[in-house]
Amino acid sequence: MTGRKTNRIKPHKGTLFVLCLLFTFSAAGCRETVKSLDDYLEQAHKYWGFEGTALVAVDGEIILSKGYGMANRTLGIPNTSQTKFYIGSITKQFTAAAILKLNERGKLSLNDNVKKYLTDFPDDPWSRITIQQLLTHTSGLPNYTDNPEINIRRTVPISDTSLVDYVRDLPLKYEPGERYLYSNSGYIILGAIIEKVSGQSYEAYLHHVLLKPLGMLDSGYGRRVTAVPNRADGYTIAADGDPANAPEVEFSILHTAGALYSTTEDILKWDKGLYNASVLSEKSITRMFTPQAGNYCYGWFVEKRFGRYHYYHGGFLDGFNTAYDRWIKDRLCILVFSNEDEAPVEKIARGLAAIIYGEPHTIPVRKSAVQLPDEIVAQYPGEYTNQEGQSLLISREQNELYANSPNQPLRMLKAEAPDSLFFVQDNTISVIFGRDSSGTINSLRYIDEDINSVYVRVSAEKGILDMHRGQYLKLDTAKLDEYVGTYSLDSQIGPPSDVFTLVVYRQGDSLFAVPYESEPVPIFPTGPDRFSHKVAEFRLDFTRDAENRVSGCLIRLSGAEVHGTLIPVN
Questions:
Q1: Which of 188, 309, 316, 553 has the lowest CB atom count within 10 Å?
Q2: Does one domain contain both 442 and 540?
């Protein structure tokens, strides 16, 4: 395999092995390395739940490009190098590039304030927030996707105007430029600026100035109403540990912060374009990769690993998890796209790099689980907090244990020994429980490669998620029928809509809740007018009027509440 010899960046010292891959691919040693990459990915598929496509390229030349597992389990369609994935926050670098293109054309300046272009925004704070601050997550804007309503309504369409208006009115968490805080909100506002300045939709502008010139014909803006050929279906891990269909996120909720889809081979075209300055100038590319606060560039993180600077970004949404790594000195590109959202794609991408650079790495292996007595399992649930104020929540359903952080999905744990557990989907992550002198659980240690963090137990109950671990009540069908109906949910986002609803129905002697036309959720009675999901972070309380008739509901999700009103039946 032959590589280009022009316009080459001088390789980092010690990268002869990478050059070997490029120039002497037929050599036995390089073939062996490629086999090691493939074997590693096969093991990640087998033991870490990786379903997707991976690509490794040096100087634009593909070394490995292959699919693993299924794009569609129902139809038995495998993942291939042409499979399309939703790429989540990898979208941000394209939004940043669109801004840089407008800057090159003299349509805006990165130091301009937002108010200059979005003139209907209030002076405070938008005359103090600059485009540069939006690009680098230093604007002070809170992250709008932390709002529980966004979590609840993420399969409900929203207009661009409603989303921008909602983000516009969020109170700042700190003064613009004061510090770094990763926030999807800034990239929503950047999208509004792109549309205002260019006079085109975000989708059209990206297509004409970035995607089409690079030949990225398998990339675009995600839309549920439009069929996307060769698109992977998204999966998540259900409470029983098996893959299940993930909720179909409405991309208007993610918009210019995370709504694009692509293939690994299309992203390689983008990667090449970032070296040869075919769609952005060299000056703009340099700006894009210049670290700012928080080691963040424009749509890229940067860190030093294996003695080399490494630029990367991931993307996560229900059913999809993606990683894009660039080792710029060596022109090494690694892409790992998964349509199973709990696959540890970043760890897999780093493992592939470690194989190429001959560095130590964790091999995916099977871990054997042991069954702990129920009285031991019952001691672990609770809320644990580390010195940085981060919470880890341990919950229990029957004899199974789950871990998660607020607003994050539950992840199943298995025991390898008493007080020693591991994550099912990424069994390299360990949770080790600590006890005080009386033998009571008082802490846990979270271990993941270079992370070794101690969390102190602050509550024996999992109050943030309101998990129910007691006995469920038995209600007759007449009682269950009192709760049946459609509830209009209160919304902070956009005008009132009959789309944002909760439907409750009975099937046999069971009750089901259907948020916003999503998949039915079985709910179980745990108290007067109170129902819970067995495992999910979801509780539903019903309210009654003066005549004791059910008139509304209250969804409790991750410590937040969303109210609903029963819609009368005519």
A1: 309
A2: no
